[in-house]
Amino acid sequence: MKSFNLKGYGGVRLEADMRGPDDAPPVLIVHGAGQTRQDWDDVACALELAGRRVISFDMRGHGQSEWPASGYLLDQFVEDLKAVLASLDARPVIVAATLGGWLAMLALGEEGAHLAAGLVLVDTPPGPDGERAAEVGASLRRVADSAREPRWDAALLDQLGSSAIQQRLMAAAPRLSLPVLSLKGTKSGLVEGPSADDMLAAIPGVELVEVEGAVHSSASERLETFNAVLLDFLERRCPLTPPEYREGSDARTFRDALGCFATGVTIVTAMDGDGNPVGLTANSFTSVSLDPPLLLVCIANNAGSRPVLESAERFAVNVLQIGQQPTSNRFAGRGEDRFASTPWQVGEFGTPVLTGSLASFECGRHALYEGGDHIILVGKVMKAMFEPQRDPLLYFRGKYRRLHFA
């Protein structure tokens, strides 16, 4: 991650972070009132892992940016955002929350949507009016006044309460001629009611998604769901690369095409003739039959554990959960004692079972087949166990993934 300074309206210093490849499509995160760029680190990390270049900055009067004596008029914030956009080498998708959503709508709707490639509005109310908004403002002020080291200047609240903001947002909404996604929590009191409905309805082609259970911040309170919806929107509306189809009969094309089939990740284990555990990572795993209960795994001919697994009368298949990615890497590598730093126990039928796995199957050897550069090991399941509260570790296109619930 790289930290640097940006210049806002009137030369105001804005502290910023950038992460991800320099040549990747940019995403600009604009936080909400009472937040800083650090509050969005988890979202920024997810975007970076998805191949995006992420820029986030502290607004004036927030975090490490300048707290100027010149004040906090709404137009000063808007001009700050325009200055940031002008400094970028490519049009970003803007992810903007609450106050940041107002700024993005005004900068793009009043100046022109050519400044950005897309817009994601996060918990963005239709204006500062209303009892609920007043409650939030009072709560923010109490937090700022009671903090030993305030993260933002409570004085800005005195200059952001004009009812004219709602009129400007309503006028800007129809001019947002770019892909727009609106995300809000189902329990939010800010983004609801006729005013909110009217504002969103005025945005051409807007996509509306409600994040179940979120109250104040859908990004922090329901991070997994939020990231899933955000990444889905980016891939559909602002993809990393233009859609491209590849074809061929060569091994590389075949392998890459197979990588489009998302799988779980397993570690196959057995005991060698001396009673020592062996194992390897494999994602070529599938069920075969329920009656009798059969499954299969494919083991590469050049795998160091292949002779033991090929001759073992019993073996185990351990399906990994998201916290076991280091374990997957360990069993996929060479030159280390894989079990020394991996919690495991001997199962009921004498196989090494990795504790903490999403699921484990103890099997007896049912059949063995040659399959080109792999052997196909079919097992009859003697015992199955699973943990219903965990989420799976996934593998797709050569990278680990996590399951997101939309």
Automatic annotation (TrEMBL):
Keywords: Hydrolase, Oxidoreductase
A Gene Ontology biological process term: pyrimidine nucleobase catabolic process
The protein's name in its UniProt record: Alpha/beta fold hydrolase
SMART domains xref list: Flavin_Reduct (SM00903)
Pfam families: Abhydrolase_1, Flavin_Reduct
Molecular functions (GO terms): FMN binding; hydrolase activity; riboflavin reductase (NADPH) activity
Domain of life: Bacteria
Positions of transmembrane segments: none
Originating species: Sphingomonas lacunae
